[in-house]
Amino acid sequence: MKLFRIGELAKTAGVSERTIDYYTKLGLIAPEERTEKNYRLYSNETLTRLERIVHMKQEKYSLDEIKQSLEKWSLVSTEEQVASKLTTLELHVQQLEREVNELKPLLGEMKPVQARKMMAGLLAKSAGTMEALKILLENTMM
């Protein structure tokens, strides 16, 4: 398991070290362990939690609301977490379908060569993402 020192975690998450300190003092995140020299080490789970906090801050949630949300999330079973994530993924797929439908008229206005290039790049990325999701789901259901 990869453990991050505070500077590495801050850089990876795109926040300052002071923010990490502040969130740690508030109890939003916690170090996984400490080194012999008393450096705090944070796990990938903490990185995921920190990314969720940053996202919620961007959505204009207060730190108290974020803390309450994270506490509720911690109480949720693994099965419920998976169901929630799958629901979120389904909503993202529906949003992507809507956006593709919005793009269709614009693609129709482009020259055929341009439209094919745009779609080829998009389809390759989408296919890779869908294949990765399929493999993940198959591996977890075994």
UniProtKB/TrEMBL annotation:
Q: Which residues form the HTH merR-type domain?
A: 3-72
Please provide an example of a Pfam family that matches this protein in its UniProt record: MerR_1
What SUPFAM superfamilies does the record point to?
Putative DNA-binding domain
Recorded hits in InterPro entries, A to Z, give:
DNA-bd_dom_put_sf, MerR-type_HTH_dom, MerR_fam
What highest taxon heads this organism's lineage?
Bacteria
Q: Which Gene3D superfamilies does the record cross-reference, listed alphabetically?
A: 1.10.1660.10
What keyword terms does UniProt attach to this protein? DNA-binding
- Give a GO molecular function annotation for the protein: DNA binding
Q: Per its record, how is this protein called by name?
A: Transcriptional regulator
